[in-house]
Amino acid sequence: MDNDTLKDYLANNSQVITIFMDKATDFLNRQNEDRAPARRYNDAEIARQADKMLDDVIANIHDKIVPHTREQTPAAWEQFLSENDVLDDLELSMTELSFESED
Predict the structure, then answer these.
(1) Do the Cβ atoms of 19 and 95 come closer than 8 Å?
(2) What is the pLDDT tens value at each position of the chain, 103 positions in all?
(3) DSSP secondary structure, 37-98, as one string
(4) Is the pTM of this model over 0.85?
(5) How far apart are CA 45 and CA 38, in angstroms?
(6) DSSP character for 16?
(7) What are residue 70's phi and psi, to 5 degrees?
(8) In angstroms, rounded to a whole number, what is the distance separating the alpha carbons of residues 9 and 41?
C-alpha cells in the first residue's frame, strides 16, 4: 500500500485525517495571527501547509507499518490495521496531539 492509498483508507475508515486536519489548521491559523498583517497567509496557503503536514504524518505512519506487513497489498494492510486496532490507536493519538510553536 502506498501513501496515497493509505491516506484514502484512513479517510474512508476513520476520523484520523479529520482530527489531524482540524488541529493542524487551528495551529497554522494561530501562527498566522502572529505574523505581520502584510505577511499573513491566505486560507489557500494555510490549507496547502496543512496538507503538507498531513502528507508527512501519512508517510510516517506508512514507514512504521511497512516492516510489519509481509505483503504490500491493500488487503494485507487492511487485515493488519484491523487485527491490531491501528485505526483506534491512531484516532486516540490524534485526539491527544498538540502542536507547539517553534520559537
Answers:
(1) yes
(2) 899 999 999 999 999 999 999 999 999 999 999 999 999 999 999 999 999 999 999 999 999 999 988 888 889 999 999 999 999 999 999 999 998 765 4
(3) GGG---HHHHHHHHHHHHHHHHHHHHHHHGGG-SS-SHHHHHHHHHHTTHHHHHHHHHHH--
(4) yes
(5) 14
(6) H
(7) -70, -50
(8) 30
